[in-house]
Structures are given as C-alpha cells and as structure tokens.
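Budget justification aside, the reviewers requested a transparent look at the raw inputs and outputs of the sequence design task funded under Objective 1. We therefore reproduce one unedited record. The lines immediately below are the structure tokens for a 248-residue chain.
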C-alpha cells in the first residue's frame, strides 16, 4: 500500500499537476492539505471515479482532503473529524481497522498559542487511539521540523516558529504516543530530505529547505514500511509530496 501526503497550496492552482500525479503514481491513499477552496470549487479533473474522496473545505484558506482507492476499500469508508478540529484542518477515515488521517497543523505565525493547543490535542487524540489498540497513520503538514537535521543549515534559527524547543517537545510527545516517523526511520542519515522550501532565492532548486511533511504510523504499521520518499520534482507548490510504501 502506498500512502501519500501533499500540501498543494491551493488545489485550483495545482489541479492539472495533481490530476497528472494521481494518474501516473496512483497512490492507494492520498492526504491533501491547504486546499484553499470550497467544496463547489474543487476542480472536476481531480475528482477521480477510482477514489472515495472527502473534501473538508474552508473558503480561501486551509482545508484538507482524504482519498482512498476503491480497489483498496470497495465500501465507502466512514469519514469523520476529531472534536478538536478547527478551520477544516483534519479528516480521518477507517480502513480495515486502520485509522488514516490527513492533518494541516497551523503554522503559528498568526496565532502561535493556537498552534500549540492544536498539537497538544493531536497528541491526546493519538494517545487515545493507541490505548484502544487502534493503529493509526497520520499524514500531513505538521509545520514543525522535528530536529536540526530536518532543516538546512542555512535555515536553522533556534527561535523560528517551526523550530522552537516547545514545538519539538510536542513532536516528541506525538511520537511518544506510539507513532513512528517513517521518513526518518527509513532514512536515518539523510540530512538533505526536505519537503518544503520558501518560494524565493531559488531555494527549492538549491534544496535549502525544511522537512515538515510527514507520514507517521503506529509501531505495528510502521514496521511494514519499506520506503519513504520526497518527490521533490513534483509540482509547483512550495511543498512536495511525501510517499510511504507499506509491505505485507
């Protein structure tokens, strides 16, 4: 099973790229963030007949989606939102006992305390699922670079939002809730594995970026991971798709 996450930074602007990517790569599960569109504005070209889809939208801002291939799950999955969802930032579905969620954590620039509160709620939600022995795959734009390795040396700033100690402590708590960062687990020494680049000074071409997009999975599920890649050449969003492959 191939699970992909991509912050498209505006689905209308990226519709042709998303449609081409879906047709070419055909991930089994697709988690999208930052749709920046209402449901009625979702382009027809990305509404594929071979996917169940839930578009959790908000006008001009935020918004997430979750797409699951019908070949993987012929029956319509039950889509839902945790109680702490705000601004259309998280949607979840259950497939064969596995909870899959697409999340877009606030970046914190406008309301830093709200970001911390959202991540704290995310941690408690993950803990509750793990205590009920419900495996979880949590995908999306977490807007936190977990360690210095996840930031290019030229971009490292101790007090920058997304790199602050209290944010990284919350990320540690999220992993402590029983989740594994599949990207880092499979690429432990790769200090050039970035998923977001500021849109200036040709930073993407120079790979001067941050890793803030993740596929996190419960231990039992993460143990099946055979690969995790950042598709840095795909699209014109400031984020690139991250794809984790699960065997078995």
């Amino acid at each position: 099973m191939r699970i992909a996450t991509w912050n498209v930074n505006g689905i209308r602007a990226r519709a042709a790229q998303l449609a081409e990517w879906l047709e070419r790569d055909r991930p089994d599960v697709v988690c999208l963030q930052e749709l920046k569109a209402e449901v009625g504005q979702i382009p027809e070209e990305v509404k594929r007949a071979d996917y169940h889809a839930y578009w959790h939208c908000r006008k001009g801002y935020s918004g997430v989606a979750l797409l699951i291939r019908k070949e993987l799950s012929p029956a319509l999955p039950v889509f839902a939102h945790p109680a702490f969802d705000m601004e259309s930032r998280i949607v979840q579905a259950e497939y064969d006992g596995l909870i899959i969620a697409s999340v877009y954590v606030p970046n914190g620039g406008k309301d830093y305390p709200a970001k911390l509160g959202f991540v704290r709620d995310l941690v408690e939600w993950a803990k509750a699922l793990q205590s009920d022995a419900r495996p979880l795959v949590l995908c999306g734009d977490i807007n936190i670079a977990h360690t210095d390795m996840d930031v290019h040396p030229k971009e490292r700033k101790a007090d920058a939002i997304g790199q602050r100690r209290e944010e990284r402590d919350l990320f540690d708590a999220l992993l402590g809730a029983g989740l594994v960062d599949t990207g880092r687990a499979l690429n432990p020494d790769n200090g050039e594995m970035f998923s977001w680049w500021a849109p200036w000074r040709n930073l993407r071409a120079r790979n001067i970026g941050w890793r803030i997009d993740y596929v996190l999975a419960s231990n039992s599920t993460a143990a099946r991971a055979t690969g995790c890649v950042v598709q840095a050449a795909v699209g014109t969003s400031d984020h690139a798709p991250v794809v984790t492959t699960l065997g078995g």
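The chain has a mean pLDDT of 96. The first helix runs from residue 15 to 25. Computational costs for records of this kind are itemized in the attached budget.
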